[in-house]
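Predict the 3D structure for this chain.
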Amino acid sequence: MNPDANRADNQGSGRIQPAVRTIRVEKYYNSIARLEAAYDRAAQSRPPRPAVPADFVAWKEQLRGKLRDALGLHHMARCEPTVVQLGSEELANCRREKWILQTEPEVWMPFYALVPRQRAERGPLPVVIATHGHRGAGKLSVAGCDEIPAIRSVIEHYHYDYGRRFCAEGYVVLCPDARGFGERREFYFGQVTNEDVMDEEFFLESSCTLLNRKAVSLGQSLAGMWTWDLMRLIDHAATRPDCDAARLACAGLSGGGLQTLWLAAMDDRVKCAVISGNFFGLRDSLISITRCSCSYVPHLCELVDTGDLGALITPRPLLIESATGDELSGCRGLQNVTEQVEITRRAYAMLGNEERFCHHVFSGSHRWDGEKTYPFVRRWL
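Done. Predicted structure below.
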């Protein structure tokens, strides 16, 4: 007799039914409430935010130092700034160049450079680093590679081709693959198969969790590695004859908004920032609900909330766009966004730079909007 199966009931169907191999758990004893309480205690223990302009510079310098440690930037290794061009193609409105840039020993970052037509007649152009989020196959989505059917679909859904749109506005646009995305995917088990490579879900997904799990055990973080790589991309932009790196912006949706937030908070060379769909209070978005592993940085909640990271960007222009129905906002919805926006807005107002700060709220779900973005960047860059 098969010990893993029971005979059918007494109605005589004759079918073999699988045995019940579990028991009903009547009560689960959870721990999230304890972590929420720990977050509240940590938030109350953070150093006070500056109340007057004279205190801001010291606050910014001290907080950046702590965040560098939390991100693990001191673990990153410099190398010769080697960059190799892999190809170039002329498109309708721009030239799309493919490059790889070495950001650490044995670590390479593929990226596209979108260069407007007739660039040579206009001299060096302002630069936009267009960072991507999830489910867009890395740089392919923001660079507007809609000749790929799967990319065309996500562009339509998320309005993901903002890199191409910035290029049409007259900027040189750099569209990098973040670690764990696109051509920088990591794999759990050996080599991928041909079936994996051609599977659409596999193609669009990322390996954030794998990388961040390994990084945090070494005193690093995926967010720190992203930030380091983007800093090296700014270094590269400063060497390009077609780029005016003194006028450089960074913009991104979702995980790209997170990359933009960290880079602009930590590097003053970013002269203008656009964060779309990723400006949420940490208690709701990291503790009470589960976000992608790439959002988690050791000791982050002990140091800041999202509004504080935004405050580190002042006095440089910053636009935040938020969807009314963004599911990533957490159970309190837009309130979890506006609370953080007000922390950042107060910093801009304190320093007399409120006109350089904009929060654009639009109706819809998690996506790039762009209605206010392009005029805002044009004004300040």
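The longest helix spans residues 56-71.
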